[in-house]
Design the sequence.
């Protein structure tokens, strides 16, 4: 049985969003107090990941980027033997002051906070990258503790802006499709790995000119045509189990090595 895309709107309730906001401010204040000597609960942080892009459907993985001063990059970059791991531990210790009874642990590129109600935050410490004129170029450098430690780059604001713009043009269809594919993944294919950035990047690329109709507009498409178009895009662009996919706005390469099988399963499910 097919599972067509439906209008979903905002899935996470306002009460839950208020709790997210309260905890976000607490984390932000803890980071600012430790690294910026500030009591601000809003500066130097932003929502990223699915929640930041507007496509989250639950609270099991809420990503927050926290900006740290450049002096801290210099400090931890100069450490021989995985200074990135030391940086994550410093961020963990700062958060533990505010959440001493929560499960707070460093893991790979982030510090994870698991709350008793099932909500989980992933805190990504990052540093602004400056151009040759000393101006921020919109990207951030963040730590990766794997393989002995290294630094990676991300541009979340460009991704968020691109997603919001295309969602507006599609009358909300972009966000609704991304949320729908997440729901199918979670309900039918939970054993498959299929990341949020793969879903969002794929739908962004595959949606083309499809959109929800405005009041008074008549459709020339048949039921199921849109879902079939998504599957056709994958079939036409995947070559030998490889799909070249870039993140919206930032154009950074998206790794599908572990997600392509799950994406195929989800797309077939919504068309059969």
Sequence:
């Amino acid at each position: 049985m097919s599972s067509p895309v439906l209008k979903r709107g905002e899935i996470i309730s306002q009460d839950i969003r208020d709790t997210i906001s309260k905890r976000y401010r607490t984390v932000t204040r803890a980071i600012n107090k430790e690294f910026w000597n500030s009591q601000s609960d809003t500066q130097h942080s932003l929502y990223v990941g699915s929640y930041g892009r507007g496509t989250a459907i639950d609270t099991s993985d809420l990503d927050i980027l926290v900006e740290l001063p450049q002096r801290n990059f210099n400090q931890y970059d100069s450490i021989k033997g995985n200074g990135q791991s030391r940086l994550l531990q410093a961020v963990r210790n700062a958060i533990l002051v505010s959440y001493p009874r929560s499960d707070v642990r460093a893991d790979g590129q982030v510090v994870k906070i698991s709350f008793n109600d099932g909500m989980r935050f992933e805190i990504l410490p990052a540093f602004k990258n400056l151009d040759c004129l000393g101006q921020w170029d919109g990207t951030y450098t963040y730590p990766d503790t794997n393989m002995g430690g290294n630094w990676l780059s991300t541009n979340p604001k460009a991704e968020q802006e691109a997603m919001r713009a295309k969602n507006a043009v599609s009358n909300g269809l972009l966000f609704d499709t991304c949320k729908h594919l997440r729901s199918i993944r979670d309900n039918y294919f939970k054993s498959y790995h299929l990341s949020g950035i793969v879903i969002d990047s794929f739908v962004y690329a595959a949606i083309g000119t499809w959109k929800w109709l405005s009041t008074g507009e008549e459709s020339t498409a048949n039921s199921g045509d849109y879902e079939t178009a998504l599957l056709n895009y994958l079939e036409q662009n995947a070559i030998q189990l490889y799909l070249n996919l870039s993140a919206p706005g930032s154009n950074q390469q998206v790794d599908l090595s572990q997600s392509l099988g799950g994406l195929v399963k989800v797309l077939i499910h919504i068309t059969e």
User: Anything to note?
Assistant: The chain has two domains: 14-154, 159-271. The first strand starts at residue 45 and ends at 48.
